[in-house]
Amino acid sequence: MFRFIQRETLSRLRTSRPVNRIQPCRQAHQKRPRVPPPVRLRSDGNQPITAFGWFLLAIPATTFGLGCWQVYRKQWKEDLIRTLESRMRMEPVPIPDDLSELDKMEYQKVIVRGEFLHDQELHLGPRAFIQKGDSNTTGGLFSQKEASIGYLVITPFKLEGREDKILINRGWVPKRLLDPASRPDGQIKGTVELQGVVRLPENRPQFTPNQKGAIYMYRDVPKMSEQCGTEPYFLDATVESTVPNGPVGGQTRVTLRNEHLSYIFTWFSLSGFTSWLWFRQVVRGKSF
Fold first, then answer.
1. What distance in Å separates the CA atoms of residue 201 and residue 14, rounded to the nearest whole number?
2. Pick from 167, 169, 125: which is nearest to 147 by CA?
3. What are phi and psi of 206, to 5 degrees?
4. Strand 109-116 vs strand 191-199: parallel, antiparallel, or unpaired?
5. Predicted TM-score (pTM) of this structure
6. Is 24 left (phi over 0), alpha (psi -120 to 50) or beta?
7. Residue 274 CA: distances (Å) to CA of 27, 36, 53, 281, 283
8. Does the keyword Mitochondrion apply (predicted)?
9. Distance set, CA 232 to CA 102, 118, 127, 156 (Å)
10. How far is CA 92 from CA 88, 112, 243, 251, in A?
């Protein structure tokens, strides 16, 4: 009986298939192709963009709007510069009988004839000395220290042959000559003829205190004219009106800063960067 069982066992071992123990190991070491995961948007319905995420979109939208606004400002500034330059090159004309026409003649030269009323002199400043249409504090008639601090002399002017009075910016004086008594030779008397550049009122700059006294901090033509009893019109006397020991004329700034191109680049760059950042962080949900 024992021999029969032994023969059956040996016959079964001979007919059975050998087990391949190496194949699973080989399959375990085989490299599987890496499939990149599909892009999953946060707005696929499962994870919608939150209200705060939409609020953050206001940053690139606002900077883009500021860039567009600077494009408009650049065009406006270039048109203003061209208009200013063309008017400054025009030949001077007699002051119109209707003074209201001066509102449309800013930066244009007019010829006036009349008499200064020095007893009502006003001052505007402090201001830097202007040469050739721009600030210049080196050399010239005054020292560098004096040219950095001074004031504009604003004097009422009665037009000849009429009752109208206007305001004329005679020019710049250093602080030591602010008192009219310190420059008696410069207080010209009698009828004079001069050329002046039409200027419109200036808006009150931000943080500028309210006007007190006879020294103004900006060109507040309505208040100046009310104080002196003149018409609300203002001229900058040209440099040819300068007299010895008197205010230096030609204090009209004819150069304007035009840096809007750099502002355009800045705002549009910020808009592009924040747009990419918003898409990466909010839409795709990636972090750095």
1. 117
2. 125
3. -65, 140
4. antiparallel
5. 0.66
6. alpha
7. 48, 27, 13, 10, 13
8. yes
9. 10, 18, 22, 11
10. 9, 10, 20, 17
Q: What is the DSSP string of 150-217?
A: EEEEEEEEEETTSS-EEEEEEEEEEGGG-SGGG-GGGS--SEEEEEEEEE---PPPTTPPPP-SSEES
Q: Is the dihedral of CA 67, 70, 74, 76 positive or negative?
A: positive
Instruction: Write down the pLDDT at residue 1.
Output: 54
For residue 276, give every residue at least 6 positions away whose Cβ sits within 8 Å of its Cβ, in sequence order, or none: none
Going from the C-alpha of 22 to that of each of 26, 101, 106, the distances in angstroms are: 6, 105, 98
List Cβ neighbours of 283 (8 Å cut-off, separation of 6 or more): 41, 42, 43, 49
Q: How far apart are CA 199 and CA 59, in angstroms?
A: 40
Instruction: Answer whether 201's CB lies under 8 Å from 224's CB.
Output: no
Sequence-ordered strand ranges (E) for the chain: 93-94, 109-116, 122-127, 130-131, 134-135, 150-159, 165-174, 191-199, 215-216, 234-237
Place of tokens 């085989």: 30
**CA-to-CA distance for 17 and 23, rounded, in angstroms?**
15
Alpha carbon distance 44, 41 (integer Å): 6
With the C-alpha atoms ordered 202, 208, 210, 215, is the resulting torsion angle positive or negative? Answer: negative
Contact (Cβ atoms closer than 8 angstroms) between residue 122 and residue 224: yes
- Which amino acid is it at 39? V
Q: Residue 257 has what pLDDT?
A: 76
Cβ neighbors of 104 (< 8 A, separation 6 or more) are none
